[in-house]
Amino acid sequence: MVTVALAPQKIGLVLDPLSTEYTNQFYLLENLTQRLVSLDETGNYKFELAQSITKTNELEFVIKIKNGFFSNGEPITLVDVKKSLDRTISRGSQHVDLKEYVSKTEIKNDALYVYLRKYSKNFLYYLSLPDMGILHPDQYSKDVITCDDFIRVASGPFSYFYDGKDYFLLKNQFYSITQTNYPEKVKLIGSWGYDIMDMTLKGDLTLGQVGLRKYLAKIDQLSEKSKVRIIGTPSDSLTYIIFNEKSSSFKNKEHRRWLRTIIDKNFSVPVKYQDLGRRSKQYFPPESKAFLSEEKVDEVLKQQYLKSKPADFPENVNIYTYTSAYDVTLEPLLKQLELIPDINIKIHDTIDPYKKAEMFKNGEIDIFIQIMSTDVRMPVEAINFEFFSQDAALKDFDGSVRNHFDTYLATKSSDLEIESLQEISKAILRNDQMIPLFHSAIPIAYDSTQVNLEGLSHLFIFNFWKMKTI
Questions:
Q1: Is pLDDT above 70 for 59?
Q2: What HEC string does the chain produce?
Q3: What is d(CA 419, CA 297) in angstroms, rounded to the nearest whole number?
Q4: What's the pLDDT score for residue 180?
């Protein structure tokens, strides 16, 4: 058994591929469901359950599958694959509205035929998401799937388990798609309230995301001889300010633009934190195809900045964030906002993560500091989530994001792909609903005497079937 700091989903709560609001749910579903394909860290596709995926023309894919098994020993059939995809197509998911692209699926000649309504360069990418995880008949027949359903049966390398006290992932003994020498049992613990770094140093924890506050406090305890290793890059997440459209405050565009003007003029990342964070005035990090050069950013922003403070600008600017925010973003950087001259900013880390969505919807929060995980391989996932998902927080006010997104999806030219993504980046800059602050690392500590993570980057650190036990 290995013990990891990944918040479990409690008995009775929703754990459904169609609605993954939090990152830990996404990670759990990656372990509990099997996908047809996966995406490596360079953006190349690898077959998982799929034996082959043949593109007969731009609008038709033929999928054949390998022999796969659910955790109860039942074989995974083409019907299961079809019904699982059909559920996502008909209902839509958090990361893609598949019915926009797929007209129908049918089984014939021992294969699943998928017919598209229109060309989609990202079809294989969508198949790699947990949103498209293969479900058991007892699951895909339900309107809402809970974590209890994955205790009964799962298609992935693990099933779920609760012993009345603790939550676990149990190895699917019938899973044989990839390596088999992965952990038999993964104990899940919520990271909040635990000193992850200290537990890992003591050998009580195998792997976990280290709260940045704790990491900064204990970084001196790491050495070349330490059994604890750290994985993470300064483009793991983006911290940004978002104005709530449901709120009655800061409706005035001039107020929003002045706040951005004064922040961009005064906010920076000190040298001592530059291994962990990078100042950013745009949504995407330098490794992304959607990244804009400094000259292009300045060209857009010079049209957005104000030369003087509006006379009716609020005396106090209260910005809220999660109670757990400083475990995943750099507190010293956010506190710098309170030191900006000629404006009275106050940061309040008082919002319960599980109540934030409802409070946002009800307009109870005016301005919020959001922390968003990033995946530099596929900027389309972030665009889908931020603008077009069921709980999208950003609004495409003039339709420019949708127009350029559709161009990106339709083109077969790599140059036009990059151009379209960069136009979306410009549109986000012109959109006065958010202020990017910085990209930062999410340090993940692991005990090198318990597991071998050779070949794994931070992108796959919670794919527990890819780690090897020692």
A1: yes
A2: CEEEECCCCCCCCECECCECCCHHHHHHHHHHCCCCEEECCCCCEEECCEEEEEEEECCEEEEEECCCECCCCCECCHHHHHHHHHHHHHHCCCCCCHHHCEEEEEEECCEEEEEECCCCCCHHHHHCCHHHCCCCHHHHCCCCCEHHHHHHCCCCCEEEEECCCCEEEEECCCCCCCCCCCCCEEEEECCCCCCHHHHHHHCCCCEEECCHHHHHHHHHHCCCCCCEEEECCCCCEEEEEEECCCCCCCCCHHHHHHHHHHHHHHCCCCHHHCCCEEECCCCCCCCCCCCCCHHHHHHHHCCCCCCCCCCCCCCCEEEEEECCHHHHCCHHHHHHHHHCCCCCEEEEEEECCCCHHHHHHCCCCCEEEEEEECCCCCHHHHHHHHHHCCCCCCCCCCCHHHHHHHHHHHCCCHHHHHHHHHHHHHHHHHCCCEEEEEEECCCEEEECCCEECCCCCHHHCCCHHHCEEC
A3: 14
A4: 73
Tokens of 91: 């209902």
In the predicted structure, residue 224 carries a pLDDT above the cut 70: no
Burial class (CB in 10 A: 0-12, 13-18, 19+), 184: middle
**Is the dihedral angle over the CA atoms 167, 199, 130, 81 positive or is it negative?**
negative
Average pLDDT over residues 139-167: 97
- Cα–Cα distances (Å) from 137 to 154, 174, 440, in that order, read 11, 18, 41
CA distance 335 to 275: 18
Give the pair of three-digit tokens for residue 63. 């999928």
- Phi first, then psi, for residue 435 (nearest 5°) are -125, 105
pLDDT at 327 over 90: no
Euclidean distance between CA atoms 396 and 392, whole angstroms: 10
Phi then psi for residue 32, to 5 deg, are -100, -15
Closest CA to 125 of 328, 319, 382, 309: 382
Instruction: Note the pTM of the prediction, 2 decimals.
Output: 0.71
